């Protein structure tokens, strides 16, 4: 159980870190976010929130309720990204990638609860 949890959580965290970095420093990503119709401050806000979420997910001492908020925020990010890219008529590959990471997010959350529940029996 722990292997699945940590594998999915680390893969998700790596993606979030890369995504946050591109939101802050990659000119094509910055322009892409603008093309999707989002204001510049939203891009910066998302980058900061992704970095905060990484810490919350990776540090075991955070309470499970705080981790749930991080999972929710990340899930909303993926849903927003999927909708924005579909409306913008971007490649379907982008939607598939977001769905794969949404699957990692869901798997990580499920196994977090399995680990938490088995520890509290």
TrEMBL record:
Top-level taxonomic group: Bacteria
Regions crossing the membrane: 42-62, 69-87, 93-112
Membrane topology value: Multi-pass membrane protein
Record's keyword terms, sorted: Membrane, Transmembrane, Transmembrane helix
Pfam families in alphabetical order: DoxX_2
Main location: membrane
Signal peptide: none
Name of the protein: DoxX family protein
Species per Swiss-Prot/TrEMBL record: Flavivirga algicola
Classification of source organism: Bacteria, Pseudomonadati, Bacteroidota, Flavobacteriia, Flavobacteriales
């Amino acid at each position: 159980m722990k292997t699945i949890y940590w594998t999915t959580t680390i893969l998700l965290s790596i993606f979030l870190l890369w995504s946050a970095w591109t939101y802050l420093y990659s000119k094509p990503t910055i322009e892409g976010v603008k093309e999707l119709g989002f204001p510049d401050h939203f891009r910066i806000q998302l980058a900061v929130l992704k970095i905060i979420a990484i810490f919350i997910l990776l540090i075991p001492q955070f309470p499970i309720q705080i981790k749930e908020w991080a999972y929710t925020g990340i899930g909303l990010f993926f849903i927003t990204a999927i909708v924005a890219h579909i409306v913008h008529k971007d490649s379907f590959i982008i939607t598939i990638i977001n769905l794969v990471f949404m699957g990692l997010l869901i798997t990580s959350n499920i196994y977090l609860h399995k680990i938490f529940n088995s520890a509290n029996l």
